[in-house]
Amino acid sequence: MTKILTGGVGKTEVAKTISDLGIDTLTVTVSSDMDAAMKLRGRQADYYLGTCHTGAGASLGVLVGLVGAVKCHTFGRSVPTEDEVCALLAEGKTVFGFAIDQIDVIAPVMARAIAARG
Questions:
Q1: What pTM was estimated for this model as a whole?
Q2: Per its UniProt entry, which superkingdom is the organism in (predicted)?
Q3: Backbone dihedral angles phi then psi of residue 56, each to the nearest 5 degrees
């Protein structure tokens, strides 16, 4: 089972959007950024999806500091394809940020790519 934590201003919406997909290999939990960082570092969770108003950084501020920039990626205002997300996952990225107004588009792409990775 792959565990995804959600945080930021749209954390509840991201969790609901992913849960509504019904992907049985994923569990989604609403979290704070500090708790998520500790769980990721302790291998109690696999991924973090954070949201802010612009997707340009505030969604990941604490995670960048505690998990490391090499593990983090923010999409800003861009909408990734599943192939782009798969490439980032293959590089070892586990923390992702995006804009709150793009949850309905990006969260499903992220969930499907994460589930495909296993």
A1: 0.95
A2: Bacteria
A3: -100, 5
- Taking residue 90's Cβ as centre, other Cβ atoms within 10 Å add up to 9
Residue type, 91: E
Q: What is the 3-state secondary structure (H, E, C) of 59-115?
A: CCHHHHHHHCHHHEEECCCCCCCHHHHHHHHHCCCCEEEEEHHHHHHHHHHHHHHHH
As for how many domains the chain has, the answer is 1
For the stretch 73-107, pLDDT in tens is 999 888 999 999 999 999 999 999 999 999 999 99
Residue corresponding to tokens 């769980």: 39
CATH number for the domain harbouring residue 88? 3.40.1400.10
Decide: helix, strand or coil at residue 20. Answer: coil
